[in-house]
Amino acid sequence: MSELIHHIKETVAFIRQHYKHDSEVGVVLGSGLGHFTEELSVEKEISYNEIPHFPVSTVEGHKGKLVFGKLGNKNVVVMAGRFHYYEGYSIQDVVYPIRVMKYLGIKTLILSNAAGGVNPSYNVGDLMIIKDHISQFSINPLIGKNENELGTRFPDMSEPYKKDLIAKAKKIAAGLHINVQEGVYLSVTGPTFETRAEYKMIHVLGADAVGMSTVPEVIVAVHMNIPVFAMSVITDIGIREEENVITHEEVLEAAAAAEPKMTTIVKHLVMEL
């Protein structure tokens, strides 16, 4: 047994001591879903710093705990706070919780994030369903020896975000009269916001939004054959007026304003799975 698999099984064994049920859906609360746990019938919370081999979240707006509970008739495990490569973690630390979720039984993974809009038709506060991504500007978490117990050496990435989940979410949004965009997300390492030249390049490459998370987690989920749905809240506009400067505080403010809409869509999506 490899060290990684051994660590995963130790982590899962610890969690099982505190919560014995399998979870059907895993949810990663990035910006835009911070209060999603309020929709759950919470059964157990475990702080990251208590869990063997788990990193600890350091970013403002991220709580740092696993939350277990029910939404409708679904058992859900929620990451209230995610890890980012720019915090200084290894890419293996960033994706470790997704691998643990697989061993906790999840059949679907849902992620949210804050992103900068590079599509000129987007506005601050828009919600964007991610239909595809560009990952060349972030670190691939599958580099290194392949863990055959987790998945194949060369996973197919032709449909990283499941079309049936996207269709369900669009139908839910339409029924709730919530406007959603659908676009391509490009991931970077951060933590700097992009230069004006970089924003232009990202737009030319075919992306609609850019962010500092999500794609590594999606790659390992696909590697482990977990269907994925992801959504961004557009918290700033990349191609912008010359004097406009982006701050993390503005990103958090825009995410908070859009949060009720994203939470509602994801809640209904989980209940329809």
Largest sheet: 5 strands, mixed, barrel
Secondary structure class reads alpha/beta
Q: How would you name the CATH homologous superfamily?
A: Nucleoside phosphorylase domain
**Structural shape:** globular
Helical residues, percent: 25-40%
Compute the average pLDDT: 92
Helix run count: 6
Give the ordered list of helices and strands: HEEEEHEEHEHEHEH
In percent terms, what proportion of residues is strand? 15-25%
Widest beta sheet: strand line-up: 5-8-7-6-9
Distance linking N and C termini: 34 Å
Low-confidence stretches: none
Query: Total domains, how many?
Result: 1
- Computed over alpha carbons, the radius of gyration is 18 Å
Question: What would you say the CATH architecture is?
Answer: 3-Layer(aba) Sandwich
| Number of distinct beta strands | 9
- What would the CATH topology be? Rossmann fold
Brief overview:
The protein is α/β, with parallel strands linked by helices and 273 residues long.
Q: Which terms summarize this structure?
A:
single chain, 273 residues, alpha/beta, Rossmann fold, five-stranded mixed β-barrel, 6 helices, 9 strands, 32% helix, globular
Description:
With 273 residues, this protein is an alpha/beta fold. The chain has a single domain (3-272), classed as Nucleoside phosphorylase domain (Rossmann fold, 3-Layer(aba) Sandwich). 32% of the residues lie in helices and 23% in strands. The protein is built from six helices and nine strands; from the N terminus they run αββββαββαβαβαβα. The protein has helices at 3-18, 91-103, 163-175, 196-205, 215-223, 248-272; strands at 25-29, 41-47, 65-71, 74-80, 108-117, 127-134, 181-187, 209-211, 228-237. Strands 5-8-7-6-9 form a five-stranded mixed beta barrel, surrounded by four helices. The protein is globular, with a radius of gyration of 18 Å. The relative contact order is 0.20. The model has no long low-confidence stretch (mean pLDDT 92).
